[in-house]
Amino acid sequence: MSGPAIAMMIVICGLVWGGFVSCILFVKRKERGKKARRDKFS
Amino acid sequence: MKETFTSRWSLLLAALGMAVGTGNIWRFPRVIAQNGGAPFLIPWIIFLFLWSIPLLMIEFGIGKKTRMGTIGAFGSMNRRHTWMGGFVGFCTLAITFYYCVVTGWCFRYTFASLVDIVSGWSGSDGCLPGGGLWGSERTSFWTSFNASGWQPVLFHLIGVLAGSYIIYRGVVNGIERANRILLPALFLLLIVAVVRAVSLPGASAGLEFLFGMRWGALLDYRIWLQGLTQSAWSTGAGWGLILTYAVYMRKDDDIVANSVLAGLGNNSASLLAALAVIPTVFAILPAARAIEVTQDTGPLSTGMTFIWIPKLFEAIPGGKIFLFLFFLALSIAAISSLISMIEMGTRNVMDFGLTRKKGIAIVGSSIFILGLPSALNPSFFQNQDWVWSLGLLLSGLLFAATVIGYGVERFRTELLDSDDNDMKLGKIFNILIKYVIPIEFAALIIWWFTQAILVYDPQRWWDPLRPFSVGTCIAQWGILILLMLIFQKRITGLLFKGER
Q: Could you say which of B88, B107, B159, B309 would form a disulfide bridge with B395 (CB–CB 3.0 to 4.6 Å)?
């Protein structure tokens, strides 16, 4: 496999899978924050 | 009182289950191959953000605001737009009729690949002489399955019953519980398949084909149109399915981040499927032959998935087990999307005051009966696929149109930039809905109709009785829109009884 193809694979997979995983972590963090706020006011 | 998903994660799993379907595993690897590999991936990612995610946001927003199925939702946005909801709903239901047949094929192949493992262990040479279970000729199994008549019908029925049972169980016990099992299993199976594929000797040729960039290819407009088409069909944006699930989202649930996550999750599954399939084909066949095989459309677009993959997987160590896992993943993807389609139909029926039980009886039996012509007649299947797949593009435009009618700025500030959302969009959303989506729709519809006129049926492209003509699209869409307009007042009256 050539160098440019490896670079492209890293970029594409990074964008798609990295974006997906980042989104999951972002939502997880936000939900934790919301839960903490709910617990505080309940 | 409508049920709601018990958590945001349940909604997201259901949304992912809807988005990840056979198009990700079956169509995506073939379309990449037909468009020369890596260059296709660029527009495919760009149009995720320019078509699919904005439409997912609209669907989430309308569903959350109106809490009704497609017909009632469009009617709630504007009483004169009820017909649009009818078009979107019927268009998706018409796809369900034949999608359920496809789900049946997936079930049949999963069952057959399991039988193949068992028969292999018992020392048998398989069901067909000369070439194991899948036959001596590459199309043997598909031909005998399809020609039997009763088998596609039986497995279509199994698809209807399985999907209807999940929907009958309701939102929490049915949709939510099913997706909690199906989606993690699907991603796990795809990851196992990818690990196996890329570890095969010679798989790097497939990876080179998949990611070897030729920048000049990006100057070809067809790659951009194919990328947009794949993005429009694969994510399920503009189908009314996310709208239906959004009916059951909690009142303070986010829309923007959920839409981005669903879109990226869909593309992640597609990429996994491509990495599972293409390196496997290149590991077994010489490069030139591998490209031909991955590009093979075959009868009813079955080419690579249903014709070649069973034969090719036989050639790798442990191939029978991986073939079973592959078709199991395909079946899971199919059923998780099918249930969202059945729920879309059922929700619309329930909006008229019927119980879930009666709704599912009406929708399930309609899917079985109206799917029979597609199960038995390949030409009918192809015609319906052509007409309603393009109809989905119109559905996407109708979603944008109803938001434009409602006021894009008002929609954005009320639903997308409200405090419930974890991300804020800003005015970019207005530009996407007012200008980008209508331009994309126009480009796509002109291109596909031009294909019909110049390539598919140049002699009789206008003829409504031809399977791939412009005439058949206009005629079937026209009849549906006309009926919806005629009955719009009555349908609106039934849906909003007691309201002025």
A: B88
